[in-house]
Amino acid sequence: MALLALGINHKTAPVEIREKVAFTPEQQVEALSQVCVTTPAKEVVILSTCNRTEIYCSTELNGSRALLEWLGQYHHLNPDDLQQCSYAYWNEEAARHMMRVASGLDSLVLGEPQILGQLKSAYSLSQEHSAIGAELSRLFQQTFSIAKKVRTDTAIGENPVSVAYAAVSLAQHIFSDLADSRALLIGAGETIELVARHLSQAGVKSMTVANRTLDRAMKLAEEFNGEAILLGDIPEALINADIVIASTASPLPILGKGAVEAALKKRKHRPVFMVDIAVPRDIEPQVAELDDAYLYTVDDLREVVEENQRNRESAAQDAEQIVELGADQFIRQLRELEAVDTLTMLRRQAEETKKNELEHALRQLKNGKDAEQVMAQLANRLTNKMLHQPTVQMRKASAEGRQDLLGVVHELYQLSNGSESK
Fold first, then answer.
1. What is the pTM (predicted TM-score) of this model?
2. Are 56 and 44 contacting, i.e. CB atoms less than 8 angstroms apart?
3. Is 36 an annotated catalytic residue?
4. What tens digit of pLDDT does each residue of 380-399 get?
5. Which domains are assigned to the chain?
6. Which end of the chain has fewer CB atoms within 10 angstroms, the N or the C?
7. Residue tagged active-site, from 36, 50, 57, 85
């Protein structure tokens, strides 16, 4: 059996294909039982995210094709088409790939931390449904350990590279203490949710979420103990907002110069920091003309994002070295375990020989033979029996020109001639 990592990800396939091979949580449970029965795979973990579907397993060396055929059958796709956009890593390469994935080195956003949690969930699901055994468990435990070391020993996750983070980072440069600032978030999608999370972590306690539908706004606002309003209520909410961050899918601006100007007058010209993440823009560009409004767009955030990306790429070099050492260590441990069966058989054979010769010697002693002579015979018989088969095989190897086998014997027994020992 061999370790295999088979997958399709954002580097090898467009989203149109990735979404077709994705598994829902409910499907994963069904798939785990199917794949263990219908393919050579004996231990299986299935990872399915928006950017990748990967199957980690212990299987036969020709097992990748069988898995592709199963994957195609399960999702009603042609296995040959999947072959074109898939990859298969075996043994050491499989271990290295898994560790890179868990460490965020193979992600669309370098160093993103969510993938480690997703990998742990996939592993737990396989454990829960008895789809994983000792071999794959050892690999996952080593993988989690290496991913933790990458997070601890490098700065790969310290400089987020999302536009949402860049917006909050700018706010921190402008306000000395965000805990006293009030934020108005326009929109309730993934980007605004990420903004809210970063703002909360930065200390902002007062947040208002404005959205076209109140239900969506309420759901997000409740998570951060905020307030939910409709888009029509924005002019009034602007009066108390120190930070305004907008990201909607509106084709036209939601916030105009007039509304901002009116709010600034009621704020007695206390400045307001505004970030428009949306494309097309949510805030009229003319707002930047107002003295007390500081408006930034996606283009303004690019420098922050690029700087953080450079920092992550530098940290990634250190992370790659940690992964390389981790993969080497795992394979070394795996090879040591592979020797256990051979060592067990060797020791069993030696014990059997010892037992037989000891019984022979004891019988000799009971028959009145001289003890010193019996001991000498015991030593000679043990030596001859232990070395008989190795001697026969070494002579045969030498006659066949197999010097490599003789070299192994020298290494195993640390042999040297007289001149070398002096």
1. 0.64
2. yes
3. no
4. 998 888 888 888 888 888 88
5. 2-156 (3.30.460.30), 163-306 (3.40.50.720), 335-415 (no CATH)
6. C
7. 50
